Amino acid sequence: MKGYLSSQKKVECFGCGACVQVCNQNALSMMEDDEGFVYPAFDAEKCCGCEACLRACPYGNELPREGAPIAVFGGHHKNASILEDSTSGGAFSALVEAWFLREGNRAVWGAASHGIDVRHECALNFEESVRFRKSKYCQSDMGSAYADIRLQLKAGTFVLFSGTPCQVAGLRSFLGPRAYGGRLLTVEVVCEGVPTPLYLRKYIERLESGHGSKLAELDYRYKDGRRWDFQVMLATFEDGQYCKVDRWFNPFWSIWLQHLMSRPSCYCCPFAAPDRIADVTLGDLWGVHLYCPDLYSRNAGASLVVCNTEAGVSLLNDARSFLEGRNLEFADARRYQGPMRRPVGEVLSREAFMHDLLTLDIDDLEKKWAKRPSLKLLWCKYIWGNRQKVALWNLRRALVSKVKKGGD
Ligand SMILES: Cc1cc2nc3c(=O)[nH]c(=O)nc-3n(C[C@H](O)[C@H](O)[C@H](O)COP(=O)(O)OP(=O)(O)OC[C@H]3O[C@@H](n4cnc5c(N)ncnc54)[C@H](O)[C@@H]3O)c2cc1C
Predict the structure, then answer these.
(1) How many Å lie between the centroid of ligand 1 and the Cα of residue 264?
(2) Where is each 4Fe-4S ferredoxin-type domain found (predicted)?
(3) Ligand 1 centre distance from Cα of residue 137 (Å)
(4) Ligand 1 mean position to 301 CA, how many Å?
(5) Closest atom of ligand 1 relative to the 134 alpha carbon
(6) Is the pLDDT of residue 291 over 70?
(7) Is residue 366 part of a domain?
């Protein structure tokens, strides 16, 4: 059988913890390695040799994938404050609201922040699900989520599970072939990988010592009043101070987006492909200013929603009353979504970066590895950027329609 438990190859473990949760002997537990990523550790004395852990591993388990998407939607939430509180266009909140409006006992699982730690938790109504909003760029701890979901499904609850594609695969693999009357619906985020928490801890420690206060909240992508594609990081401290950094001046974004510190399995992720593992795939509507500028929403954020199954389409249809937008062609959307085509692939300098992460002080590490923005990039972002291009496009469109009306 394939998978980390039999091969001990780190690229063969997504860190989902399905193996740990399936083991009724408590013979496995998740342990952090020296790079900060979690892997199952095995206690041979407790093992009864049933191999349930090997069968639950999504790496070894070739799960059926969905083929070409059935529907592709681009747009944003109609409610301005939900849109501001969401990473992309708030499509996740629209799906969740529609989910809870349906009949029957319902639950939603998602990733919630606890300082810089992230855990998968359950919400039993829309208000409780608000804590799942926003992308936390760190692998979330699944705890006992899969086992709890199995109990909920067996008890007749309808469950919407949201997470990264490998976490969805972990859940499906854990549950096995049983369909539970179609009560499970899965929503995955487009995912380019998860970074090591080791760097983030050092980064936050430095911020805390600079501000003389503990971190209260970290928003990786604060929109700062219609600056969605600026990926502003906002750190709020316990004493009320805060600090904001735009993406081009933020070493976290620079280092991570060079793919120097992702989990080993992310470089060859089998779920970074056009055929998806979940009912619905959510992402940023990257390229919006190029192929559908009418959905730009003045840089307040835009979502891509890809429905891979009929159940996904049905939920999107219910959620449409909360959303503004329209159908798109998958071929157009996919052009701007690398993780929906192929995984990142090997990054040769990762090993050297990881060595430096363990040995250098954070300032020296960043001096060596974080890129400074070029003047051209700063010009494009702050002076003549997407916002201005879309404004020009709108002006041109308004003029053309005026001229056409005048001619009628
Ligand atoms: C680690 C990560 C990498 C991503 N990479 C890309 C990318 O390369 N390209 C792209 O287009 N989009 C990416 N996304 C998705 C994007 O950032 C938004 O999450 C998505 O578009 C949904 O946004 P929203 O506005 O609809 O809702 P939001 O309310 O912002 O979305 C919240 C959703 O994200 C889930 N979530 C948040 N943090 C985590 C986490 N740590 N682990 C698992 N699930 C989490 C929540 O459970 C919920 O389902 C990534 C998200 C994450 C978490």
Answers:
(1) 20
(2) 3-33, 38-67
(3) 8
(4) 13
(5) 30
(6) yes
(7) yes
Q: Which of 189, 247, 253 to mutate to test the pocket of ligand 1 (most atoms within 8 A of CB)?
A: 189
Q: 250 and 175 in one domain?
A: no
Examine the domain organization and report whether 222 and 98 are in the same domain. no
Q: Whose Cα sits closest to atom 44 in ligand 1?
A: 163
**Do residues 170 and 152 both lie within one domain?**
yes
For 190-217, write each residue's pLDDT tens digit.
999 999 999 999 999 999 999 999 999 9
Residue 177 tokens, joined: 């072939």
**Residue 272 in domain:** yes
Extended beta strands in 47-104, E state: 71-77
- Determine the structural domain holding residue 348 and report its residue range: 197-260+344-372
Which ligand 1 atom minimizes the distance to the CA of 87? 30
Question: Six-digit token pair at 397?
Answer: 């469109």
pLDDT tens-digit series, residues 90-148: 999 999 999 999 999 999 999 999 999 999 999 999 999 999 999 999 999 999 999 99
Ligand 1 centroid – CA 214 distance (Å) = 25
> What is residue 15's predicted lDDT score, i.e. its pLDDT?
98
Ligand 1 pocket, residue 192 CB under 6 Å: yes
What's the gap in Å between 189 CA and the centre of ligand 1?
Answer: 5
Measured CA to CA, the distance from residue 102 to residue 122 in angstroms comes to 17
Ligand 1 midpoint to CA 1 (Å):
31
Domain harbouring 325, CATH code: 3.40.640
Is 63 inside any structural domain? no
In a domain, 64, yes or no: no
**Mean pLDDT lowest among 19-23, 199-203, 226-230, 348-352:** 226-230
Q: Is 90 in the pocket of ligand 1 (CB under 6 A)?
A: yes
Neighbour-count burial for 283-321, b at 16+ CB within 10 Å, e otherwise: bbbbbbbebbbebbbebbbbbbbbbbbeebbebbebbee
